[in-house]
Amino acid sequence: MDYTKKIVRYSNYWYNDGLRKAQIRDLTGAILSLRRSLQFNKGNIAARNLLGLVYYGRGEVAEALVEWIISKNMRPRDNIANEYIQRVQDASRQLDVMNQAIKKYNQCLVLCAQGGEDMAVLQLRKVISAHPSFVKAYQLLALLYLKKEQYAKAKPLLRTAAKLDTTNEMTLRYQHELSLHKGSRPRREEKKKEKKKKTTIEYKLGNDTIIQPAYHMVKSLAGKFTLMNIVVGGLIGAAIVWYLVVPTVNEAKANRTNKQIIEYSEQINAMDAQISAMTRTLDNYRAADADSEAAAQTAASTSDSYENLMAASEQYNSGSYTSDAIADTLLNINRDVLGASGQAAYDELAGEVFSAACDTKYEAGIEALNVANYDSAIDNLSKVVRMKESYDDGGALLNLGLAYLRNGDNGNAAAYLKKVTEQFPDTEYAQEAANNLNTISQNADSDKSKDSKE
Q1: Do 315 and 329 form a contact (C-beta atoms < 8 A)?
Q2: Rounded CA gap, 220 and 433, in Å?
Q3: Are 436 and 417 in contact (CB under 8 A)?
């Protein structure tokens, strides 16, 4: 078997493994298997589409859209990813609700970092109500309840999170913490037994141990002896109680008190250790979710860039759009977040469009500059510079700097004029740029002198 067939076989193996796990809602395990499948074969469309579905099942809509858009870019036709994307777009109201829920979740992370955990609890309840499949929201709310020692409220949340994703490591860790706490609490029956007191009196008479209710002893003596015997018996009984029973009772009470103090101390130490562990877990969770938020922002940028790339490609293929209109769409793309195939498609479109678009926008920018429409001039000339900074051998940079200068923005004007002097020295453009830089410098010095006099 050759190398290519082995790669395809391994990729299909991990896809099937991910499919089995997804069917039993082991979503975390499914993500790991599907990512491994894509490591072997990035072109495995079925694995990428299923990975998007798994992300969607965990409530992570942005990550799901990224996978489906990449899949659509790899195979524009006969791809079920088109249907998934269309369904999400059709359910725009539901998508907006999910987006708002995710934003509120991110706000809750900020509230937790600032100590506003009570407000975070209220917000997370709303997040779960609006977005019932958002696993991270269940986990964070359960963690806050664990920290507040409201274990009865944390339990159903963790149970729901486990149903959504059966092997999620964070959920299992919190469930383990909950079970440890439950195991450390004494049972009610044991507490009741500890509270029970002996209603009898034990004392020794010679080698025999006498067990008898305290009140019964006096009553028995009173029935058998005369008044004198009653008095003598009472004195004897009092002596016995004083010398034998009272020390035993006091010692038993002291032992019970010491035992309770030791138990309470152990419980307090265990609770302190659990609180410390949960605090560390919460700190780790905050750090992890800060990274997740950055990753979500990157994913959103990636999604937008792929959407704009597909839109620009459709505009170009339709033949109904001018070069400058297509260029506007391309300039909304962050090329760095695209994959290798996406960057190649971007470069190909840019090579076809940018040259003619530069001519059109440069001419429009010069016309706007001549009629003192500086905002329009800046808009057109800045796009020319973004497409080709060296356009007109520095002419685009020079005129953009002049547009900023006449619009009162000396900072940006100086930056672009300085580029002309550095990149195109010994030219007429450079000389004109230097003259304007001197004017800016002289005006700044004049303003400083006026301020000092005042």
Answers
A1: yes
A2: 122
A3: yes
CB neighbour list of residue 46: distance below 8 Å, 6 or more residues apart: 15
Distance CA 69, CA 302 (A): 9
- Of 125-134, 152-161, 188-197, 394-403, minimum mean pLDDT range: 188-197
Nearest to 278, CA basis, from 162, 138, 170, 116: 170
Task: Check whether 313 has a pLDDT greater than 70.
Answer: yes
Nearest CA among 309, 401, 299 for reference residue 349: 309
Query: CB under 8 Å to 387, separation ≥6 — which residues?
Result: 327, 331, 350, 354, 357, 358, 361
Which residues have C-beta within 8 Å of that of residue 352, sequence separation ≥ 6? 316
**What would the CATH number be for the domain defined by 328-453?**
1.25.40.10
Q: Using DSSP bridges, classify how beta strands 201-205 and 208-212 pair: parallel, antiparallel or unpaired.
A: antiparallel
Extents of the domains making up the chain: 3-90, 97-185, 201-273, 328-453
Helices (H) and strands (E) counted in the chain, each on its own, are 20, 2
Residue range 97-185, CATH number? 1.25.40.10
pLDDT at 371 over 80: yes
What band does 398 get if pLDDT is binned at 50, 70 and 90? Answer: very high
Fold type of domain 3-90: 1.25.40
The pLDDT assigned to 188 comes to 46
* pTM for this model (two decimals): 0.39
User: In Å, what is the CA distance from 245 to each residue of 156, 195, 220, 240, 253?
Assistant: 52, 20, 18, 7, 12
- Name the region of 319 (left: φ>0; alpha: ψ -120 to 50; beta: rest): left
Mean pLDDT score of the chain, rounded to an integer? 78
| Higher-scoring residue by pLDDT: 437, 116 | 437
Are 288 and 50 spatial neighbours (Cβ–Cβ below 8 Å)? no
Go through 423-439 and write b for each residue having 16 or more CB atoms within 10 A of its CB, e for each that does not.
Answer: ebeebebbebbeebbee
Contact yes or no for 222/230 (Cβ under 8 A): yes
Segments in 131-185 forming alpha helices (H):
135-147, 151-164, 169-184
Q: So what's the pLDDT on residue 190?
A: 45
CA atoms within 13 A on the CB side of 229: 9
What are the helix (H) ranges across 241-339? 246-318, 323-331
